[in-house]
């Protein structure tokens, strides 16, 4: 090879090197440009952090469920002759129609149920002997108001928080000035109501703080679960009651060497629920706790509180002590009121509670003062019903468990079911 040829080859190699370098530079620029674009993309607004519930829970549920879809309760297929409903396309379609109907939307019920679960689970940790009944009631009700995002008749407390103790089975909540303190040996029933657009979640549980009455609690919980299992479209109320009674009476409690049978409280019952009417109004249905001949059937779309009460006493309650619960009597005819104080109080009740139950603490919270005479006058005129606490024999113990169920066209939904019971 001569020198001229070598020089030309060298020049060609140099040109190739320049091309490689140029391509390399261009590539670097492309990479740099792509990297810059990637960096710009990464500068998007950071995602909002999911809210974290406080302890005790006080952040409204809409912050956690912004799409308005709340957790389902326990879904149970209908049994026996009704199990065809689960796969029936007609019933599944009807279920979707009912779900989307603003008047019956399941989401109102489910929001109330989720509030109930959170409040009661916190209450079970919070409640301890040594606390006053007022302290316990305020803690529970503050939680309900915050989580349900209380707003007049749109959402709020469904009824006064029941905190019935020992032989008192139901309908006790502390009145203003009540100083009663929970004791270690007490058996406490906690009955909480939550409503969203009038759809009330009604669910209760019992707490004890030493083991003597564990079997009483187990008996009543099992009886409630029996009632839930036997309930369904076309189920007869008398037959459900018989099953509840059989379960309850299969338990006994031993106290200081003496054995007591667990008895269902015969004059208490579960009940249907209608919008803004906790006991289903004038045409409401009762789910009794002892066998009877009631052939009335549960129907599609109905909404029930299945609650059972058990006792180591006689299994029958009577009125006693100071009344705390009141509610409008929807069957009462209009009565002229001459007392100005009664007129003013009735106006306050209509504006704040409507047909929902209330208590004296709620009246004072709404601004009522010196109202007792007017309140008793409204009761005497039949405009209000007073609902006194109910007692079995002194020295006996009573327990309560309760869940709310929805008889959907294709399945039964135990809307208030939770991990705790």
TrEMBL record:
Pfam families: Peptidase_M24. It is found in: Cytoplasm. Residues 107-315 form the Peptidase M24 domain. The keyword Isomerase does not apply. A divalent metal cation 2 binds at residues 202, 271, 307, 402. Coiled coil: none annotated. This is Methionine aminopeptidase 2. The lineage of its organism: Eukaryota, Fungi, Dikarya, Basidiomycota, Agaricomycotina.
């Amino acid at each position: 090879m001569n020198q001229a040829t070598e020089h030309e080859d060298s020049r060609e190699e140099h040109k190739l090197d320049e091309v490689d370098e140029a391509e390399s530079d261009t590539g670097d620029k492309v990479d740099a440009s792509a990297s810059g674009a990637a960096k710009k993309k990464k500068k998007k607004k950071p995602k909002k952090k999911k809210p974290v519930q406080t302890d005790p829970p006080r952040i409204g549920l809409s912050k956690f469920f912004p799409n308005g879809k709340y957790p389902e309760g326990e879904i149970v297929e209908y049994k026996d002759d009704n199990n065809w409903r689960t796969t029936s396309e007609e019933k599944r379609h009807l279920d979707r129609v009912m779900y989307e109907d603003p008047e019956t939307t399941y989401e109102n019920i489910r929001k109330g149920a989720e509030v109930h679960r959170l409040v009661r689970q916190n209450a079970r940790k919070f409640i301890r002997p040594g606390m006053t009944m007022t302290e316990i009631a305020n803690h529970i009700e503050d939680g309900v108001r915050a989580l349900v995002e209380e707003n007049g008749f749109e959402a709020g407390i469904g009824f006064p928080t029941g905190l019935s103790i020992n032989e008192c089975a139901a309908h006790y909540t502390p009145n203003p000035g009540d100083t009663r303190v929970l004791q270690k040996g007490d058996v406490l029933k906690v009955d909480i109501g939550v409503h969203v657009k009038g759809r009330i979640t009604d669910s209760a549980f019992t707490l004890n703080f030493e083991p003597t009455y564990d079997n009483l609690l187990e008996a009543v919980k099992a009886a409630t679960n029996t009632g839930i299992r036997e309930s369904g479209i076309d189920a007869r109320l008398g037959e459900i009651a018989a099953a509840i009674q059989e379960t309850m009476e299969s338990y006994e409690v031993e106290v200081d060497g003496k054995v007591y049978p667990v008895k269902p409280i015969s004059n208490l019952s579960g009940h249907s629920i209608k919008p803004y009417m906790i006991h289903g109004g004038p045409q409401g249905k009762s789910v009794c706790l002892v066998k009877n001949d009631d052939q009335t059937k549960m129907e599609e779309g109905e909404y029930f509180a299945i609650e059972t009460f058990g006792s180591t006493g006689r299994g029958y309650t009577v009125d006693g002590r100071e009344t705390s619960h009141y509610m409008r009597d929807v069957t009462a005819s209009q009565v002229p009121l001459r007392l100005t104080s009664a007129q003013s109080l009735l106006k306050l009740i209509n504006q704040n509670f409507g047909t929902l139950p209330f208590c004296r603490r709620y009246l004072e919270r709404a601004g009522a003062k010196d109202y007792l005479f007017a309140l008793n006058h409204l009761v005497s005129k039949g405009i209000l019903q007073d609902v006194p606490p109910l007692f079995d024999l002194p020295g006996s113990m009573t327990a309560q468990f309760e869940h709310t169920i929805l008889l959907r066209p294709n399945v039964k939904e135990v809307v208030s079911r939770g991990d705790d019971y």
